[in-house]
Specification:
Elements: H1 2-15, H2 40-51, H3 54-61, E1 70-71, E2 79-80, H4 81-100, E3 114-118, E4 121-128, E5 131-138, H5 145-154, E6 170-176, E7 181-188, E8 206-214, E9 226-228, H6 234-245, H7 251-281
Length: 283
């Protein structure tokens, strides 16, 4: 009997539907069973952004200028209202300098001289009867510093500003064919001789030093003897000046050299102003 009742109970239990498992409280539900609500995603993203230094990156991406006078053109460089005013001043200055510019192109030197210009350095070359004469000068520091000061003191308010004149030192090289030596004469313009027109007997330039240097070498040797003309016999000095005049380096040449140097200096000055304007405007 007991065995039959047990068998019936087991059969009934097998036919009865299974009891559902009790649910766990919401507080103990696993994250995998309960996904976070949609609104939680932005909060999580903001938290991660803050933990990752998002605030600092925002400051880098959007820089704040400490001065109200600064402006930006997108190049990343510093620009101020002063730079803007400076650029406008340079624009006006360039226009005025171009108005008073005498020579749009550099003037030529008479006598068959060929001109070569490398920045602020100019070279004049002439070949005659087996000789090559080269005259080299540089326009840097070629305007006498006292010229502008003296003219400002003597100038009246209604008078126009005087023109600046470039008076460079220049070097004459005389090379004879089939020789290994070059005669070098260092010349300059004495300030007391400039502007003395009508004095045909007076030379407007002088020779300061004379030396021989190896032909074809770019660097001159300091060990070569150099003759200073301050203590030179006048007869020898006059012959040296005649030697230059016979090769086209005379007062006429010197006047034309001053005109050429002044035109070149003014041209380079305008170019400098244009470069300075582009630099200030970061173009």
């Amino acid at each position: 009997m007991l065995l039959a009742r047990s068998l019936r109970a087991a059969a009934a239990a097998a036919l009865r539907p299974p009891r559902p498992a009790p649910r766990r409280p919401l507080s103990s539900a696993s994250p995998r069973a309960l996904p976070p609500p949609p609104a939680a995603a932005p909060a999580l993203a903001r938290s991660l952004w803050q933990l990752g230094g998002g605030a600092g990156r925002t400051a880098l991406l959007r820089p704040r200028w400490g001065s109200a006078g600064r402006v930006s053109c997108g190049c990343g460089g510093l620009h101020t209202e002063g730079d803007k005013a400076f650029a406008q001043f340079l624009t006006d200055e360039i226009k005025e300098e171009k108005k008073i510019q005498k020579h749009k192109s550099l003037p030529k030197i008479s006598g068959g001289w060929e001109l070569e210009v490398h920045g602020t350095e100019a070279k004049l070359v002439r070949k005659i009867a087996g000789e090559k004469i080269t005259v080299t000068f540089n326009i840097n520091n070629s305007i006498p510093p006292s010229a502008e000061e003296d003219t400002q003191e003597q100038q009246k308010p209604e008078e126009q500003e005087p023109e600046l004149t470039s008076i460079p030192n220049f070097v004459v090289e005389v090379i004879k064919d089939d020789t290994k030596q070059t005669l070098v004469l260092d010349c300059h313009f004495p300030e007391d001789e400039i502007g003395h027109e009508g004095e045909e007997e007076s030379d407007i330039f002088t020779i300061r030093e004379v030396s021989f240097q190896p032909t074809g070498e770019a660097d001159w040797k300091d060990t070569n003897y150099t003759l200073n003309t301050d203590s030179l016999d006048w007869a020898l000095y006059d012959h040296l000046m005649d030697f230059l005049a016979d090769r086209g380096v005379d007062n006429t040449f010197a006047d034309e050299l001053i005109e050429l140097s002044t035109a070149l200096e003014h041209q380079e000055y305008i170019k400098f102003l244009e470069d300075l304007k582009s630099f200030v405007k970061c173009q």
